[in-house]
Amino acid sequence: MIILRFIAKIIQVLRAGPSPSQIAGGFVLGMFLGMMPLANLFSLVIVLLIFVLNVNISAAILGWMAFTLFSYFLDPVFHNLGYALLANNELLKNLFTWFYNRPVIPLSKFNNTVVFGSFIFSIILASPVYFSFKKAVVLYRSTIDKRIRNLKIVHAVQSNRAYLYYRKIRNLGD
Amino acid sequence: MPNTNGSEKKTTEKQVSVKKTSFLRRKGLLTLLILFISIILCSILLSDKFIEHRLESRLSLGVGAKVEIDNFSFSLIGLNVGWKRLQITDPENTKKNLIETGVAEFDLAVEPLFYGKVVIDKIKLENLQNGTERESDGSLSKSQKAESEKPGILDEAAQNISKELSGSTGIDFSRMDGKIDINGVIDALEIKTFSRMNELKNSVNSKAAGWENEFKALSGIKDKADEIKNKAGSLKFENLNNVSGFIQSANTLKAVRAEILSLKTEFEDKKTAFAGDVNLLKSGISSIDDWIKEDIKTAGSKANLPDFDAKNIAGMLFGEKIKEYINDGFKYFDLARNYYEKFSPASKVESPERFTGQDISFRNDKAWPGFWLKHISVSGLTTSAEKSNGIFLSGNIFDISSNQKKTGKPSVINLSGGKTNGRSYDLKMLLDYTADNSTEEVSVNISGISLNNTSLWNNSLLPEGISRGTLDVLSNVLISNGEINGNIKFTGETLNFIFNSSKKLSLINKITEEVFKEAEKINVNISFKGKPDGLKLSIASNLDNIFSQKLKSALGREFEKQKNELEHKVRQKIEPEKQKAVSFLRSHMNNLTGRLSGTESLISADLDIINTKKLELEKQIDNVKNPLLKQALKAVKKTLKW
User: Fold this and answer.
1) pLDDT surpasses 70 at B344
2) In this complex, is the C-beta atom of A24 within 8 Å of any C-beta atom belonging to chain B?
3) Which of A91, A143, B314, B456 has the maximal Cβ count within 10 Å?
4) Confidence of residue A120 (pLDDT cuts 50, 70, 90)
5) How far apart are alpha carbons B50 and B117 in whole angstroms?
6) Roughly how many angstroms between the first and final C-alpha of chain B, as a whole number?
C-alpha cells in the first residue's frame, strides 16, 4: 500500500505541482544520498539540504532508491577512485591534510575511500542528472502524460466501479 | 497547463512550471528545529541504552566474544561516561570472563571529539578481575564472530618449549636393571686398530728400503772416523826439540781436527734426515693406544651402556603443568599484541566490504590517534566482590592507544593482585610500537600456586602426584625485532609426593622414591632465545643432578664393572697384534737410533783424542827449557787455540 501511494505521489508530482527544477533538484540530492554510505556527516548535510531547500522530497526519495542500487555495483569503482585521489595524489595531499586537521571535518569521513569516491562521482554526475531529469519532467508533462491518459487501459480502470468507489473514500479522512 | 488551441508549439519549461516558490522551505526549517530539539532531548534521556548497545556490539566483534556493560551512563553536558559493571568474555573459554570490572567513571576530552578522535585522560576502575565465572555463555553467534586470529609469534615459541619439555630424560629406564651382551658386542665389533697397524707397518717397510743406502754412507763415515782416530793416536810429541818439529806437529793436529769436524757436519746432515723417520716410529707406537681407546668407545656405544647424566627429569614430572602456564601466559601476551597489530597502518585493501571502504590517514598535527586512553587507575578488591573466584588486580595502566606513533608513548601496564585463596600476581608489561622496530616486554610473577592434590605424569617409575606443596613462577619475556629472549623459573616448595605403595618396587623405583622424598625444593629454569622457528632452549633443574647422583651411586658400580669387562675383552683381542706391531716399530727405531748413536760416539771420541793431543803438545811446549826456543814456540801455541 505504501509503495502504491508513493508511486501515485511520484506520478502526481511529475504531472503537476512543483517545478521541474524543484523535482530535478530533489532527485539529484537523493542521488547523493543513494551513492554514498549513510553513516557520515556528508549524508547528514544532504538530508538537511533536502529539508531546508525547496526541493521535492518525493523526488529525493526516488533518487535515493534508484541510486542505492547503482551504488552497490559501483562500490569497487568508488573505492578505487577514492584511493587514487586520497592516497596516490601528491598534489592534493596538502589540501587533505589541512582538512584532516580542522575540527568537525574529519567527522565527515572524507578520508574514507568509498565515501570520498562516491561523493566525487556524484558531483560529476550532478549536472548531467539534473538537466536530464528536468528535461524528462518537461517532456513527461508535455507529451507522455497525455498519451498515458489516452490509453484504453487507463480509461478502463478509471471507469471501473471499484476505482470510482476508491476515489470517493480515499480523501474521507482529510 | 498544456496548450489547448491545437497549434503545435514547443512546450517550454515556463509553460509547465507553476507559481514561483522561495529558495528555502520554511516548513522544512521548522521541522528541522523540532527534530534537533527532539534529538537533544532523546540523547539526554535515552542515549545511555543506545550507546551501551552500540558499544557492546562493537567491542564484542573486536574481542571475538561477548562484551556486556551494565548500567552504562553517558552525559552530554559534561561528557561523563561510566558504568557499574563491565564483563569481557574470554574468547578461549566463553564460560569465564577475561576481564571483569566494577564501577568505572571517566570524562571524554571535548576537543578531540570534533576531530573524530576519542581521548580519555583518566579512568578510575574498581574491582578489576580476571577469570571470573559468567552467568551465561559468552560466545558470539557464527555470523558475529570476527575472523580467527592468526597464530601469534609466541605460539611457535610455546610449541618449541613444549616439545623440549616432552623430550627425553637421557635415561633409558628400561635398561636400568638389564645386562650387556659383551661377547655379542665383541663379535660384531669391527676393530679398526688392526687395519691402522697394517697401514703403519706398510709405511715403515717402504721407508726401510731407502734407509739401507743411508746406512752405507754411515759406514763410510765410521771408517773415516776410525782412520782419523788412528792418525791422531799415532802423533808423539816427547822427542820434539826444535821449532820446525813443533810446527809440523801442530799443523798435523790441526789438519786432523779439520777432517773430523767435516765428518761431524756430514753426520749431522744424515741425522737430521733420519729424525723425521724416528719421530714417525715413535708416534706410531703412541697412536696404537689411541686407536685401541677408540675401538673400546665404539664397543661401548654398540653395547648401549646407559648414561647416568639425567636431564629434563623435572620436565617429565611437571611438563604438563609448565606447558599450561607457558601457553596461558603467551596467549595473553599475544592477545595484547594482536590488538595493536590491527591498528597499524595497512597498504591498499583490494576488495573491502561493500560500503566500508578503507580509511586513509593523513598527518595529524594534533597528534591524537583514533583512540587514546592515557591513564587507567585500578583499585583493588572491594568487600562486595570478596566471594568471587577470579584474580583481583590493582595498579596503573598508561597510554593505551590505537596508534603509538602519534602519541609517542608506549603502553605500560603495572598491576598486582591475587586470589582470595592466597595466590598473588605481579604483572608488568611494556608494549612499545613508537618506532619501526617494536619492543614488547612482559614480566609475570605468581607465587603461592597450590599444588595440593595435583596429579603428575603417568609414568610407572615416578610419583603419581603431589599431596601438598606450592609453586612460584617468575617469568620475563622480551620480544624485540622478532627475536624472543625469555626466562621462566618454576620453584616448587614443601613438596610431598604420592607414590603407589601397592606396586612391587624395583631397584629403580626405590631410587626414584628416595630422590623425591629427599627433594623438598625443586626448581626448573627455562631459558630461551632467538627467533620463534629457531628458538634455542635451555632447561635446567636441580632434580636432574640429584637423580643422576643417586643413579650413579646405586647402579654405577654394576655398570662400571660391565664396562671394564668390555674394555678388557677388546684389549685382549687387540693386544697380541699390538705387541707385534710395537715390536716391529721398535726394532726399526732401535736400529736407526743405534747406528746413529754408534757413529756419533765415534766422532765424539775422535774429537776427544784430538783435544788430548793438543794438551800434550801444549805441555811439551811448556816443558822446553831453552828460553829462546820457548819464546819462538809461543806463536805455535797460539795457533792451537780452538
Assistant:
1) no
2) no
3) B314
4) very high
5) 20
6) 154
Q: What whole-number distance in Å separates Cα of residue B621 and Cα of residue B637?
A: 8
Facing B17 at nearest CB: one of A19, A97, A114:
A19
- Band (B52; pLDDT cuts 50, 70, 90): confident
- Do A134 and A20 contact (CB within 8 A), yes or no? yes
Tell me which residue of B176, B190, B149 sits closest to B65, measured CA to CA.
B149
C-alpha B570/C-alpha B573 separation (Å) is 5
Contact at 8 Å (CB) between B301 and B566? no
The residue of B115, B347, B371 whose CB has the most chain A CBs within 10 angstroms, and thus the best one to mutate to test that interface, is: B115
Q: Please determine, for residue B325, whether its predicted confidence score (pLDDT) is greater than 80.
A: no
ipTM of the complex: 0.70
Nearest chain B Cα to A80, which residue?
Answer: B350
Instruction: Compute the distance between CA of residue B510 and CA of residue B515 in angstroms, rounded to an integer.
Output: 9
Residue B642 contacts A, CB cutoff 8 Å: no
Q: Locate the chain B residue with the closest alpha carbon to A18.
A: B18
B598 Cβ contact list (under 8 Å, min separation 6)? B222
Q: Which of B4, B12, B13 has the most A C-beta neighbours within 10 Å, making it the best mutation to test the interface with A?
A: B13
User: Residue B578 and residue B296: Cα distance in Å, rounded?
Assistant: 14
Query: What is residue B375's predicted lDDT score, i.e. its pLDDT?
Result: 92
Inform me whether the C-beta atom of residue A141 falls under 8 Å from chain B C-beta atoms.
yes
Looking at beta carbons, which residues of chain A come within 8 Å of B2?
Answer: 141-142, 146
| CA gap B519, B466 in Å, rounded | 12
Q: How many residues does chain A have?
A: 174
Distance CA B586, CA B592 (A): 10
Q: Which three cell numbers stand for residue B49?
A: 541504552
Instruction: Enter the pTM of the model.
Output: 0.54
Q: Do B11 and A96 touch (CB under 8 A)?
A: no
- For residue B359, the cross-strand partners are A112
Maximum distance among all alpha carbons in chain B?
Answer: 187
Say if CB B371 and CB B118 are below 8 A apart: yes
The C-alpha cell that represents B327 in the structure block: 601457553
Element (H, E) at B73: strand B73-75
Helix A20-35 to helix A41-52 angle, to the nearest 10 degrees?
160
> Cβ A17–B355 below 8 Å, yes or no?
no
The one-letter amino acid at B584: F
Contacting residues for A129 by C-beta, under 8 A, at least 6 apart: A24, A27, A28, A31
Mean pLDDT (chain B) is 76
Q: How far is CA B322 from the centre of its chain?
A: 18
pLDDT score of B144: 54
Residue B86 to residues B52, B103, B139, B195, B373, Cα–Cα distance (Å): 11, 8, 16, 81, 17
Q: How many Å from the N-terminal Cα to the C-terminal Cα in chain A?
A: 18
Contacts of B282 (CB under 8 A, 6+ apart): B589
What digits encode the pLDDT tens for the residues B598-614? 888 888 888 888 888 88
User: Residue B591, Cβ neighbours under 10 Å: how many?
Assistant: 14
Task: Name the minimum distance, in Å, from the CA of B406 to any CA of chain A.
Answer: 14
Q: What distance in Å separates residue A5's CA from the closest CA in chain B?
A: 22
Q: What are phi and psi of B479, to 5 degrees?
A: -120, 120
Rounded to a whole number, what is the distance in Å from the CA of A136 to chain B's nearest CA? Answer: 11
Distance CA B270, CA B431 (A): 78
> Is B14 within 8 Å of chain A by CB?
no
What does the H/E/C string look like for B107-159?
A: EECHHHHCCCCEEEEEEEECCEEECCECCCCCCCCCCCCCCCCCCCHHHHHHH
Q: How many CB atoms are located within 10 Å of the residue A152 CB?
A: 7
Q: Give residue-wise pLDDT tens across range A92-114.
A: 888 888 888 888 888 888 989 99
